[in-house]
Amino acid sequence: MIPLLSSPESLTAFGETESDAVDTAMDLLADHRRRAVLQYLAETDGSAALTELAVEIAAQEAGAEPNAISDHGDVSARDRRAVRISLHHTHIPKLANADVVDYETETETVTLRDRGRALLSRQDAVNEPPK
Predict the structure, then answer these.
(1) For residue 91, how many other CB atoms are within 10 A of its CB?
(2) Would you say residue 6 lies in a domain?
(3) What is the CATH number of the domain that holds 64?
(4) Nearest CA to 49 among 115, 105, 120, 113?
(5) Phi and psi dihedrals of 101, rounded to 5?
(6) What range(s) does the DUF7344 domain occupy (predicted)?
């Protein structure tokens, strides 16, 4: 079962101090689905429908290779739905509360903000091999 957020206090927000901001950045980047959302938005035009994000992330998680019928291989509707629900109820609200993305609930559109791009650059810095 996918956990639901019980209160706004359980969402992540950037704090007042440098230490709080680092903790928040690490928390936001800790989950692979949140990282996948940010990376997908950065690689596209910066905006995507929730369903589009769910299909892409479900395909990544399944390791699905594109085939002649679909760009997303053989990802089941059940897997796509499970990813969509977790994005809608957990990951997108957490990113939106931290002002990393904007989420328009009526159109279910997610848009990357400047803070999201900055967060991705922090991830890139962490991923760089030591010299």
Answers:
(1) 23
(2) no
(3) 1.10.10
(4) 105
(5) -135, 160
(6) 27-111
